[in-house]
Amino acid sequence: MKTKRCTACGGDIQIYYDNEVRDDVYCNECEREYRIISMHPVKLQALETDYDYCFEEDEY
């Protein structure tokens, strides 16, 4: 298992041996989502967490 640091809070993000590119992983502290974009070396991309952008204002 490898760990990376969360860019939002500095918490640990655990990368397990069976994770693959395009898997989603989470920060253990703030639960921010990241997507694995490379395994060697491990590189992560923060995912959008505000889901309201998918809806128009009049759709609520």
TrEMBL record:
The protein's name in its UniProt record: Lysine biosynthesis protein LysW
Lineage per the UniProt record: Bacteria, Pseudomonadati, Thermodesulfobacteriota, Desulfobulbia, Desulfobulbales
